[in-house]
Amino acid sequence: MVIGIDVGISTTKIVGINNDGRVISPIRIKATDPVTSLYGAFGKYLYNNKIRLEDVEQVMLTGVGAAYIDAPIYGRPTDKADEFLSDGLGARYETELQDMIVVSMGTGTSLVQCKGDDIRHIGGIGIGGGTLMGLARIMLKTEDIKTITELAMQGNNANIDVKIGDISPYPLPGLPKEATASLFGNAKSNASREDIALGIINTVLQSIGSSTILSSLGSGIREYVLIGNLTLLPQCHTVFPAMEKIFGVKFIIPHYSEFCTAIGAALCHKLPR
After folding, report:
1. Which CATH number fits domain 97-255: 3.30.1380.10, 3.30.70.260, 3.40.190.80, 3.30.420.40?
2. Euclidean distance between CA atoms 172 and 167, whole angstroms
3. What is the DSSP letter of 14?
4. 122: helix, coil or strand?
5. In percent, how much of the chain has pLDDT > 70?
6. In this structure, what DSSP letter does residue 200 have?
7. In what order do the strands lie in the sheet with 2-7?
8. Is pLDDT above 80 for 271?
């Protein structure tokens, strides 16, 4: 078995891929630092899945926290995988697509273009989960993601955003009246917490979606694979389908969307050196 580990600063994701190429029971562990998070995740993963240490052929590390790890994990062969390559390989494994833009929605957002075996980082934006949490701390006085999403489920973005229909009696070329003209452009000083929460989430997700579409211009790619923790937000299932209708593209959230980078790290072990 090959173990892939995506080491974050406070959260570590771990998956195993067996000899049949099947992903085994991914898990996520939170801790106060990347080293504690990694070793805690590794031990828990082996214990939960009744895997013997000697059955681990290789450990592959990726993610920003991997830089803090300089020794083999519990004495097993350990190597590091390029994070952007891991994003691409993991998304390809999950979707079986050859041509796509992989949108890794983490603290910020990175964009990886895949055309067959040509996998390359093409850019990103400084908007992501970190933006969502920072704005929520300032505007909602909370950083509890469950509270934020529950508030947002009760919000009405018509009270926060300016729509095309608010500024024009007719649709604009390529833009229906319900399309967003200005995020937070309609917000009032007495806006409800529910509306603010929805506005924050919409701002982050629409910004990511728009940047992704722009990044693919001229590439011929119209399929975008969303990975990372933000894919768990229920609002993804309204924001991205709305953008699909407007722009004629396809946003895809794989089954193991939050674990794609760890899956890709494990797959890097089989690549020729």
Report:
1. 3.30.420.40
2. 10
3. E
4. strand
5. 99
6. H
7. 23-30, 11-17, 2-7, 58-62, 78-80
8. no
User: Residue 255: which residues within 8 A CB-CB, separation 6 or more?
Assistant: 94
The amino acid occupying position 167 is I
Residues 6+ apart with CB under 8 A from 62: 4, 5, 6, 7, 80, 81, 82, 83, 86, 261, 262, 264, 265, 268
Q: Which CATH number fits domain 2-80: 1.10.3720.10, 2.40.160.60, 3.30.420.40, 3.90.1150.10?
A: 3.30.420.40
Mean pLDDT of 20-40: 87
Nearest to 224 by CA among 89, 117, 113, 84: 113
- The full 3-state SS of 39-63, as one line of letters, equals HHHHHHHHHHCCCCHHHCCEEEEEC
Is residue 127's pLDDT more than 70? yes
* Mean pLDDT (whole number) for 185-203: 95
Cα 16 to chain centroid distance, Å, stands at 20
Q: What is the 3-state secondary structure (H, E, C) of 128-181?
A: CHHHHHHHHHHHCCCCCHHHHHHHHHCCCHHHCCEEHHHHCCCCECCECCCCEE
pLDDT of residue 159 exceeding 80? yes
Mean pLDDT of the chain: 93
Asked if the model's pLDDT at residue 267 lies above 70, the reply is: yes
Token reading at 63: 């993610």
Q: How many residues are recorded in the chain?
A: 273
Contacts of residue 273, Cβ cutoff 8 Å, sequence gap at least 6:
none
